[in-house]
Each structure stands twice: as C-alpha cells, then as structure tokens.
Write a structure and sequence with these properties.
Length: 243
C-alpha cells in the first residue's frame, strides 16, 4: 500500500513539512506556473515548498497558458505590474540599481501605486522553454533577472549552468534584491534556504539507507565541481534565444 500523503506539501504524512513552515507576507505577488511533471513526479520539487512559505503566491499547473483563464485574469489585473523572472537581453537587472530608474514599466511599483507580480516558470530548463514557446502572452511580458550572490546549493540535482538556480533559490535571491531596492521586505530570509537544506539532507539520508528502495545509491558530488553536459548547455543556449 502507498503511504498516506500530505496534499499541501505533497510529502508522505510522517515527513510533512507544513508544521515547520512560517508563511511570510510580501508586497510582491508570485505566480508559479508549474509544469505537470513537477506537480506529479518530482520528489525534490522546490516550487511547492516556496509557495507554502509565501502568503502572496499561488501555483497554476500547465504547459500552455494563453487559454488559461485564471492565469490571464491575473496578468490583466490592473492592481499589478507583471514581470516574468527570466534571464537574457532586455531583462531588468535587479542587481543593478541604475536599471530601475530607466524602466518605465517599473515606475508604478517604485511609486507604490501598484504591486509587482512575478511570474515564475517552475520546470526543468527544457520544460520551461516549452512552456514559454507555447505561451506567447508570457513571451510578451517584460522580464526581470538578478545576478546570483552564490552558486546553486542543489546537491541532489545537477544544474545545467553555474548561474542556474532552483525555484526556491531564485525566489530567495529575488526577494533579497527587491529588499535592497526598497521594493519589498523579506521578513524571514533564513527560512527558504533552511528548508532547502533540510529537504536535501533528508533525501541524502534516504539514499544512504540500503533498506529504502527508490533512492539514488551513489554519493552526491559537490555542485561547484560538476560539469554541465553538452546537451544541457546546448538546450540552455537555445532557451535563452527567446530572450
């Protein structure tokens, strides 16, 4: 028989994270567009854990979103200024304060007239590329990016490039950048990275337990010393061509 699940964090009931999570309020609203594979199959998915930590966030599942009525209603809501969190040419670099003063799209947010809406593609690089390709309305959104202050700490997964982060890490870095710019207040900056570490430590303990099937049994390497595969690097270059 399968184990009883918690249908908030989607972990087995004995391992449920919900009781240790302290939801944080933010001025920014987050719309997490989750690929169906992340929703159904991913044990170490960080998009759902991120959502549980942020009161001003929601998850919508799909691949193409132009016909998704709820997503389109959110994007058209006059209370928000929507931006896609996505790197590349033309994206507003929140790590460079000078960019803020030259972006008319951000002016209502800076003046406090509207709230920032950040749209996040929660998927693998190839999955996110497909979601964006099938959703012209997302392609038309202005974009924001940041320069990570540290490489990814994802031990149990390999990122395709040194600057790539998990959804949880990306939101943590983004909130830090918005706080430095005075556009938001990050009330509990230790929670997201702490939860990320605890989740990975659990996965590693399970991998080291020979009595537990279904977990990787090889040691996890240092993320900083891993090399990107040529296939993943090529896919990411193609992905960024949409920027």
């Amino acid at each position: 028989m399968s184990r009883e699940m918690c249908y908030r964090c989607f972990w087995p009931r004995p391992l449920c994270w919900c009781g240790s999570i302290r939801p944080m309020a933010t001025r920014t609203r987050f719309l997490v567009l989750m690929h169906p594979k992340e929703f159904k199959q991913e044990k170490a998915g960080t998009g759902r854990l991120t959502h549980l930590c942020l009161t001003e966030s929601e998850i919508q599942v799909g691949v193409a979103f132009d016909e998704h009525e709820l997503v389109q209603d959110i994007l058209r809501d006059p209370r928000y200024v929507p931006f896609l969190l996505y790197p590349g040419t033309g994206a507003v670099d929140l790590s460079a304060p000078s960019d803020l003063n030259t972006q008319p799209d951000l002016a209502p947010v800076v003046r406090g007239e509207k709230r920032l809406l950040i749209v996040i593609l929660d998927a693998t690089w190839s999955g996110a590329r497909k979601m964006l390709r099938l959703s012209p309305s997302l392609q038309r959104l202005p974009r924001v990016m940041f320069r990570p202050t540290a490489p990814s700490r994802f031990v149990i997964k390999q990122q395709p490039q040194p600057g790539c982060l998990s959804t949880l890490e990306a939101v943590h870095e983004l909130l830090q950048a918005l706080t430095r710019l005075g556009l938001d207040t990050y009330s509990d900056p230790g929670q997201l990275p702490g939860l990320f570490t605890r989740m990975q430590e659990h996965q590693i303990r399970c991998a080291n337990d020979p009595a537990l099937p279904g977990y990787r049994k090889k040691p996890y390497g240092d993320p900083a010393k891993r090399r990107s595969s040529s296939g993943e690097s090529r896919r990411r270059r193609n992905y960024l061509k949409l920027a």
